[in-house]
């Protein structure tokens, strides 16, 4: 970075060094990469990636520094959906407490309820239904 490396380069999957470091839970590197870009978009990308990697403490720090609890990846998946995909119920509850939308849909229509039910988070899925989650929502199967 000090020698001028482009921290925004993407691999063939569209992932950046920031995405990789946050998903791996590398807190100091993640924050250093965020500081090089110094914008909220990078913080939000890191939040979703940290959720995908199951790194709750990193996600909490990102939220405290201003990341949006409803940040999405390029497919429209939220950090909350990513944490449910990992069957991390405590992480899900923390994101909800921080304002994550329990009724958000991905670009293909996938909902948190769908992810929770298919991932075995039965009590969490029941709680979502009690809070008004759409049990009739449909996603697009490709």
UniProtKB/TrEMBL annotation:
GO terms, molecular function: ubiquitin-protein transferase activity
Record PROSITE patterns: ANK_REP_REGION, ANK_REPEAT
Residue spans of the ANK repeats: 42-74, 75-107, 108-140
InterPro entries: Ankyrin_rpt (IPR002110), Ankyrin_rpt-contain_sf (IPR036770)
Keywords, in A-Z order: ANK repeat, Repeat
One GO process term, biological-process aspect: protein K6-linked ubiquitination
Residues of the signal peptide: none
Name the record gives this protein: Ankyrin repeat domain-containing protein
Source organism per UniProt: Hemiselmis andersenii (Cryptophyte alga)
Organism placement in taxonomy: Eukaryota, Cryptophyceae, Cryptomonadales, Hemiselmidaceae, Hemiselmis
């Amino acid at each position: 970075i000090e020698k001028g490396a482009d921290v925004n380069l993407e691999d063939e999957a569209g992932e950046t060094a920031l995405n990789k470091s946050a998903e791996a839970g590398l807190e100091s590197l993640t924050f250093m990469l965020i500081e090089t870009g110094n914008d909220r978009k990078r913080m939000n990308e890191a939040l979703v990636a940290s959720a995908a990697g199951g790194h709750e403490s990193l996600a909490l720090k990102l939220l405290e520094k201003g990341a949006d609890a409803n940040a999405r990846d390029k497919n429209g998946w939220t950090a909350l959906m990513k944490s449910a995909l990992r069957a991390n119920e405590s992480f899900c509850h923390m994101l909800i407490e921080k304002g994550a939308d329990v009724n958000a849909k991905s670009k293909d229509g996938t909902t948190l309820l769908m992810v929770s039910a298919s991932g075995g988070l039965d009590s969490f899925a029941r709680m979502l239904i009690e809070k008004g989650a759409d049990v009739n929502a449909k996603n697009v199967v490709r």
